[in-house]
Amino acid sequence: MSDKHCHKVTLNSQSEPLDFAAQSPSLLDTLEQANIEVAYQCREGFCGACRAKLVQGEVCYNQEPLAFVRDGEILLCCTKPLTNIKLTLL
């Protein structure tokens, strides 16, 4: 049995929240595993194609993105949740 905490990821387009397992590398990977289509290109925070609006909760970046990110937005490819979160996919 694992003691790793699992945060919930709620999307505006889904009725049920997803589990973000602590070992998952990013929110993008979690969404892909749930068969949710997300635009992306680089997977490293360079292009900004995977932007999403963070409606609620806190996240941290695996590495600081080089792409421009507006206030209230995150890049799914290099982000992990610190709390339960709510997102709007752009």
Automatic annotation (TrEMBL):
Keyword Secreted (UniProt): no
CDD domains per UniProt: fer2 (cd00207)
Domain 2Fe-2S ferredoxin-type: 7-90
A Pfam family reported for this protein in Swiss-Prot or TrEMBL: Fer2
Top-level taxon of the source organism: Bacteria
UniProt xrefs under PROSITE patterns: 2FE2S_FER_1, 2FE2S_FER_2
Alphabetical UniProt keywords: Ubiquinone
InterPro entries recorded: 2Fe-2S_ferredoxin-like_sf, 2Fe-2S_ferredoxin-type, 2Fe2S_fd_BS, Beta-grasp_dom_sf
One Gene Ontology MF term: 2 iron, 2 sulfur cluster binding
Protein name per the record: 2Fe-2S ferredoxin-type domain-containing protein
Organism for this UniProt entry: Pseudoalteromonas holothuriae
